[in-house]
Write a structure and sequence with these properties.
The complex is a heterodimer of chains A (248) and B (365).
Chain A lengths: L5 E12 L2 E12 L3 E5 L6 H8 L7 E6 L3 E2 L5 H7 L1 E4 L11 H8 L6 H4 L6 H13 L15 H14 L4 E5 L7 H15 L3 E5 L3 H7 L2 E6 L2 E6 L1 H6 L1 H8 L2
Parallel strand pairs in A: 3-8, 3-9, 6-7, 7-8
Antiparallel strand pairs in A: 1-2, 1-4, 4-5, 9-10
Helix pairs in contact in A: 3-6, 5-6, 7-8
Chain B lengths: L2 H24 L10 H27 L6 H20 L12 H5 L15 H25 L4 H20 L11 E2 L3 E2 L2 E2 L3 H27 L1 H11 L1 H6 L4 H27 L1 E2 L6 H14 L5 H20 L4 H15 L3 H6 L17
Antiparallel strand pairs in B: 1-4, 2-3
Helix pairs in contact in B: 1-2, 1-7, 2-7, 2-10, 2-11, 2-12, 3-5, 3-10, 5-10, 7-8, 7-10, 11-12, 11-13
Classes of the chains: A alpha/beta (248), B mainly alpha (365).
The structure holds adenosine-5'-diphosphate (ADP) and magnesium ion.
């Protein structure tokens, strides 16, 4: 394997809620172009970790370095999004009254300031990009439907499509296959692998079959810290992991 | 908020105002077709309320900002216009003072307070009609949205804002005529206000400005900006993770809406002939929200419809059964909330077709 640059570096991040340590000196390194699966029992701090990376939660201590030397803990959500970090939430959150098309339009990378959006006209280039994303997320036939009328799985994909439209360097995906059928789960794994060809991805997931299907390095979180890290076979065989998680 | 509903509304507002004004001017008082001057002014007043309602709908219906203090912006625009009209009275006041309005002479004031300077110039007064509500909304909105105050808390603060202004304007030493407010106006732009033709002109001007307000508001909500705004209304934090700054979007519409409300208030004052602190009453702002709810939140046109219909009802009730009006209004609000969540316009609109989809689509390949 060639040596790659570090894209994201969590360095001793601690987050406490009313004295409860949701993250406990968590450290994690993600390389450029890598896809990483993060697993761990409920309450392990997986979502909190994403909150810290995206600027929703400020850690008590520790640094989160993106790229060469950007400290994310000093930035707010829109600034972090503008740096190229996109996030998919655990519960699908699309803009329900808008059409699938408009959801993607709002997500497309571009000028976000009111003075631009007030007069913006949809360009041919934007149209082409939206059509390409619609094909990728398999929603081309649903472009004009209200996002609120989509099925649960379709909403998850639309949200992934919105992430792609942002053209982020790094995608954070929180439990993408929760509530999906087996067929949808399989397609989602394929979709994420496709995305990973050009972007780095962190996927939080409970579904072990799905994580196995991704075939990437796995980090196991427990009580806000890394319990084990390695291939899925390696962590599955780790007795500490078996004890707290797999062997429940 | 379809294009057709907007067109129909514009035609009705502009056409209705033109017909009323024409019938008032061109028919003799004895004619069955004659529209009396008081009806012209009443219609003008309703259209001013409609301007306030559209402003409320813009922030509440599209940005989810439930402002319960919007009548304050309306009243501030009204006071700016009232100050100009006071200066126009000149020596025709009871005390015949060329510079000081009657109430200042009565209070033994020797000179005009600095904040009355310039109000004898119509252009300055018009600028203040726009600036005073706009700047207040800018400062208030900047503080509130930046610190992410929203929902019920924001509603409560807006009520507090209008209440504070109510108390301030009641004070004689504020220099705005205290309890009695500003009244006894004679001219506007050197045209006598008591003439029928002036009232007709004011009604037409109000109709034109309401139409302009509707068109501006429609551009805002149908633009990409408006799509972001609706996204902010429904899931504010999600828009942040997409890289938008919801506070900038909210601040822009809040200020725009306050300016619109101020223009409504400025047109209101010459048509009703008085502005007093009662216009800041918290209940006024709540009433404006009820007009919007009755007509249909988030439709703009519904705001116009609701403002006109509810105020027609108010005029009727307060003339015949004054004690019942507040109960009728309260009952109306409860009925609309429970039975007609889309308001009157929601009655006519078909629900967007929603084919229930529970199955995933076929794989693309
Ligand atoms: N805003 C918050 N306030 C208080 N406790 C929180 C908050 N967010 C998360 N927690 C707690 O932190 C722990 C980690 O939560 P979370 O990161 O959501 O876990 P996971 O996503 O791994 O299931 C949980 O015990 C949760 O109850
Ligand atoms: Mg979680």
């Amino acid at each position: 394997m060639t040596t790659r640059d570090t894209l994201l570096y969590l360095d001793g991040v601690t987050v406490t809620f009313d004295g409860f340590r949701a993250l406990n000196a968590l450290s994690l390194v993600l390389e450029q172009g890598e896809m990483r699966a993060v697993i761990g029992p409920n309450g392990a701090g997986k979502t909190t970790m994403m909150d810290v990376i995206t600027g929703r939660t400020r850690p008590d201590t520790g640094r989160v370095v993106f790229g060469r030397d950007t400290d994310l803990t000093r930035l707010d959500e829109p600034a972090i999004a503008a740096l190229g970090i996109g996030r998919k939430f655990q519960k699908p959150t699309v803009f329900e009254p808008h059409t699938v098309w408009d959801n993607l339009l709002l997500a497309l990378a571009g000028d976000r300031r009111p003075r631009f959006t007030l007069w913006a006209r949809q360009s041919a280039e934007e149209r082409t990009r939206i059509e390409a994303i619609l094909a990728t997320i398999r929603l081309a036939d649903h472009a004009r439907r209200r996002a609120g009328d989509l099925s649960h799985g379709q909403k998850q994909w639309l949200e992934i499509g919105m992430l792609l439209a942002q053209e982020p360097q790094l995608l954070l995906v929180d439990e993408p296959v929760a509530g999906m059928t087996d067929a949808e789960t399989e397609q989602t794994a394929e979709l994420l692998r496709e995305i990973n060809r050009s972007r780095s991805v962190v996927v939080v997931e409970h579904d072990m079959a799905f994580v196995r299907a991704l075939g990437v390095r796995v980090t196991v979180l427990h009580e806000g810290a890394v319990l084990s890290e390695g291939s899925i076979d390696h962590v599955s065989a780790d007795p500490r992991v078996v004890e707290v998680y797999l062997g429940r | 908020m379809s294009g057709r509903a907007t067109m129909v509304c514009l035609v009705l507002v502009l056409g209705g105002a033109a017909v009323m004004a024409a019938l008032n001017l061109a028919t003799p008082a004895a004619s069955a077709l004659h529209v009396p001057a008081y009806a012209v002014s009443l219609a003008g007043k309703y259209l001013c309320y409609a301007m306030l309602a559209v402003a409320v709908d813009l922030v509440w219906g599209f940005a989810g900002i439930l402002s319960l203090g919007h009548a304050a912006f309306f009243a501030l625009g009204g006071y700016a216009m009232g100050m100009y009209l006071m200066r126009q009275i000149g020596t025709r006041g009871v005390y015949g003072n060329a510079v000081l309005p009657d109430f200042m002479v009565f209070l033994n004031w020797k000179s005009l307070p600095w904040y009355w300077y310039g109000f004898d110039h119509p252009a300055f007064a018009v600028a203040m009609v726009l600036l005073v509500p706009g700047v207040l909304a800018l400062v208030f909105g900047w503080l509130a949205f930046r610190s992410r105050v929203g929902g019920v808390y924001l509603s409560i603060i807006t009520q507090a804002l209008t209440y504070a202004l109510l108390l301030a304007f009641f004070r004689n030493d504020m220099g705005f005529g205290g309890n009695n407010g500003l009244t006894d106006f004679k001219d506007m732009f050197s045209i006598p206000l008591h003439l029928d033709s002036t009232r007709d002109g004011l009604l037409l001007a109000t109709a034109v400005l309401l139409a302009a307000e509707l068109l501006v508001a429609r551009h805002v909500v149908t633009s990409r900006f408006g799509k972001v705004l609706i996204a902010v209304r429904d899931s504010e934090s999600r828009t942040r993770f997409l890289g938008y700054r919801p506070e900038s979007y909210k601040l822009f519409v809040f200020v725009l809406s306050a300016v619109m409300a101020g223009v409504g208030g400025a047109l209101y004052v010459p048509q009703v002939g008085i502005i007093n602190p009662g216009e800041f009453a918290p209940a006024n702002s709540i009433e404006a929200v009820i007009w919007v709810a009755v007509g249909g939140r988030g439709t703009l046109v519904g705001a116009v419809l609701g403002a006109v219909l509810v105020n027609l009802g108010k005029t009727f009730f307060t003339a015949t059964l004054p004690d019942l009006w507040l109960f009728a209004l309260g009952a109306l609000f409860i009925l609309v909330t429970l039975l007609l969540p889309g308001g009157l316009l929601g009655l006519g609109r078909r629900r967007p077709r929603a084919a229930p989809v529970t199955q995933a689509p076929e794989p693309a390949e």
